[in-house]
Amino acid sequence: MGLERWTAYAERHRSVVGLTALLVTFGAVALVLDRPKGAAEMWLALPLFAAGAALFAWVLWPAGRPMAVAEPTLATRLIRFLSLRGRLTKVFPVAGVAVVAGDLAYNFLVSTTPAFLTEDIIVLLLGAALLAYGFVPEGYARERDFVLMFFLALNAILVVPLLAARAYFQDFDTSVDVYSWVALAPETGAVLSLLGVPNVVHSLPGVTAPAITFTPQQIGLQVTLVITTACSGIYSFGIFASAFLSFVLTEYARPSRRMWAFLGLGLLAAYVANILRMVIIVLVGYYTDTAATDLQNMLIAHSYAGWIIFLAWTALFWGLLFRFVPIREPEASVTEGRVMSAGRAVQVRYGVSCEICGGALSPAIHAERCTCGAYLHRACLRSSMKCPSCGRRFQGELSQAVDSA
User: What does pLDDT average to in each consecutive run of 10 residues of the chain (405 residues)?
Assistant: First the structure.
């Protein structure tokens, strides 16, 4: 039976292919869990898992329906560029399987332990985003592109530099702690020195991470704080930076000076917050710990205060930015603080709000988005049935949207 006949048979019997994929995948999972050491069967798990996942992706792929397309943004342009003008989007499930299989192969063949660490979870989530890309309904195409951009950026920030550093140092097992050495420990030591806290940044024998040594006022003995990858805050910075980058790319349709300033301020705020976190942890130990506390105050600050500092700083940044910086560039000319739109002057609004009433948007309140980019409450549209920004009428589209809600 030729390839075309096999393909036609699979199209007619998708349930049989799905059952085959289920059996193959369970077989691969059983080999991974049992892992008969020294037996040749254990090496069959990886190709079986890849084959099962690829079959599942083919069975579940929405045949006969075009893929949902989001409104033109910088994110959609970047995805279109990466997918060779959209020609490769249909093979995203295969790419997702390849990403998952590559991570499993790295764990079993290169790393000394097959345990799934933080970087493995990040890679596997990217594979899941690629697998699910084609199944997202049309109404959520924008959110789908945000998720894909987020995991691509997260891997670019946290995984790719780590693999490159490990390849450079020819060490594929231990952490190289490049971020702590280059962008955290020296800067933290410099800020502490400016605040009057004597300290030394140095290396320790047998440890790849940098260390900061200082002498608490009430103890009188030197204390050494090792900044490992897990304690460096790189994951917090990576998550915030990736989310912020994805947000900007999915909100702006074209690059502009405002967009670059918006993006640069966001990344800088996350980086500064991370340095501030490390500085406060050391200051707590320097000023408050005694021989009786045995550095417990600094440990508490490390475990809890760091997250509070980072979240409070980023929340303050987002609040100020949304208050004073418009998310979108005005589509028309601005005169004396007002935008000329549809033949009349309307007040410039900051952040995401309804263009009719000026009220905030909420997941609990149904809204529409006009082709010009304006957001409009459905309740407000029922009275005007027209977008105040571009004049587009919503008679047919609104009734259909309300009926399906």
Answer: 62 70 70 56 66 68 57 85 80 82 80 77 91 79 90 91 79 73 91 94 88 90 86 82 86 77 80 87 91 86 75 74 56 38 40 72 70 78 79 62 35
Compute the distance between CA of residue 10 and CA of residue 24 in angstroms, rounded to an integer: 16
Question: Helix (H, G, I), strand (E, B), or coil: what is residue 219?
Answer: coil
Residue 329: helix, strand or coil by DSSP? coil
Distance of CA 276 to CAs 179, 190, 322, 366, Å? 16, 12, 23, 40
Contact between 389 and 355 under an 8 Å Cβ cutoff? The reply is yes
**CB 371, CB 392: distance < 8 Å:** yes
* 194 lies in the same domain as 265: yes
In three-state secondary structure terms, 353 is strand
DSSP 193-214: HHTT--EEEEEETTEEEEEEEE
Same domain, 346 and 371: yes
Cα-flanking dihedrals φ and ψ of residue 88, to 5°?
-100, 0
Which residue segment(s) compose the domain that 235 sits in? 178-324
Cα 388 to Cα 343: distance, rounded to the nearest angstrom:
9
Specify the pTM: 0.64
Q: Is residue 293 part of a domain?
A: yes
Report d(CA 248, CA 146) in Å as an integer.
10
